[in-house]
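> call design_seq(struct)
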């Protein structure tokens, strides 16, 4: 196996999480009685560019063509995006003469905020079922996978992005080179490219967030590695922000290398320094990660076994992809967790892949009054606790498992 970016031979394992089903392949009533494909969840680290990466076992066209994840269902995320849009319009003086293009635009929830301010938008979203929802909301959306081909087509039709946005998509890209070349092409001469992604490598290692590793995430990035990748195609990172959303995300602002109007912020230099100090440019930081994950797994087991010995009832909150990695890797199924709940109606009444834990409506919690509510979607911990505070009435408690087991 060779590095997705620099073609170097991959020899070092970062973390091997055994075999797992595709994290977003929720099952219905009949599917749970059928064979279910499990794929190795093994990540490598490249000794040359330090890109942490997963082998592509299942074609991404299969993973993303009918994606169950609809962005619009979390209020925290919607607020985050609304603030981002307002901030972007103000900072870069975006007006109705500009064009905003978003890659992996989902159901159009982000572009809607630009559209409300009369700024022309265009979305590119590969999942046809999700793109359909966007089109219904009158957000112009192309239902295709992004790469050089589609970028060329758009440029030929006179469309170039003044603001090019790619939120939570870079880790999902199997062919990084083609994707970055496409970005370069589609960005207007003075345009701004804004990339945001979760599972930022420094946070992932520091907080042992191994559950953010799943098959849909092909790559895990540090700023060090991203700078190498983008500069190879003459794109320059001029600002970087670390955000609390999604358990630690990173936002990058980029421009063409040829555009000298914008100065490089000190934040870039500071972040690179911090990464070096943490050890992200030495291989031992990566090869010792497995030990940390093993310790975490044992602590998670301990919680579930202790709780069950005391005859406590446990349910989950959320049915996120990360929850599926955690439950499958730790072997925690229906025997420990009675059910989980999710606000997203597209997930309700389905079953988690692998563990086959049923996904129900959140109102179920007040009916069964469980002792523990394990927040699988721990990145939305505050929101979940606020919405489900009713559990205090019968002495129920919230639990998070990452970075370490905590009864709240
Ligand atoms: Zn490499």
């Amino acid at each position: 196996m060779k590095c997705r970016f620099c073609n170097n031979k991959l020899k070092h394992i970062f973390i091997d999480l055994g075999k797992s089903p595709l994290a977003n392949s929720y099952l219905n009533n009949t599917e749970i009685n059928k064979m279910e494909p499990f794929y190795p969840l093994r990540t490598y680290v490249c000794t040359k560019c330090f890109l942490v990466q997963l082998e592509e076992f299942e074609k991404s066209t299969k993973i993303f063509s009918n994606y169950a994840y609809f962005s619009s269902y979390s209020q925290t995320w919607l607020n985050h995006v609304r603030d981002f849009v307002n901030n972007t319009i103000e900072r870069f003086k975006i007006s109705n003469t500009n064009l905003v293009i978003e890659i992996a635009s989902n159901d159009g929830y982000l572009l809607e905020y630009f559209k409300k301010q009369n700024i022309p938008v265009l979305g590119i979203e590969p999942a046809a079922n999700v793109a359909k929802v966007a089109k219904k909301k009158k957000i112009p959306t192309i239902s295709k996978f992004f790469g050089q081909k589609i970028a060329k087509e758009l440029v030929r039709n006179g469309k170039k992005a003044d603001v090019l946005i790619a939120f939570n998509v870079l880790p999902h890209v199997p062919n990084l080179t083609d994707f970055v070349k496409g970005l370069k092409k589609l960005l207007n001469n003075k345009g701004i490219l804004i990339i945001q992604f979760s599972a930022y490598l420094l946070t992932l290692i520091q907080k042992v967030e191994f559950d953010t590793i799943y098959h849909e995430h092909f790559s895990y990035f540090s700023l060090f590695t991203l700078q190498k990748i983008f500069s190879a195609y003459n794109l320059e990172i001029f600002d970087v922000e670390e955000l609390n959303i999604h358990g630690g995300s990173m936002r990058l602002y980029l421009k063409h290398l040829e555009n000298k109007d914008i100065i490089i912020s000190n934040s870039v230099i500071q972040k690179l320094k911090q990464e070096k100090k943490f050890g992200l440019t030495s291989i031992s930081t990566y090869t010792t990660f497995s030990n940390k994950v093993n310790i975490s797994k044992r602590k998670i087991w301990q919680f579930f076994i202790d709780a069950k010995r005391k005859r406590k009832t446990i349910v989950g909150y959320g049915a996120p992809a990360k929850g599926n990695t955690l439950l499958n890797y730790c072997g925690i199924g229906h025997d420990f967790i009675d059910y989980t709940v999710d606000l997203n109606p597209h997930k309700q009444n389905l079953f988690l892949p692998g563990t086959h834990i049923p996904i129900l409506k959140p109102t179920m919690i007040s009916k069964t009054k469980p002792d523990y509510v394990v927040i699988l979607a721990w990145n939305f911990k505050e929101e979940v606790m606020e919405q489900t505070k009713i559990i205090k009435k019968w002495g129920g408690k919230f639990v998070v498992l990452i970075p370490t087991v905590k009864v709240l």
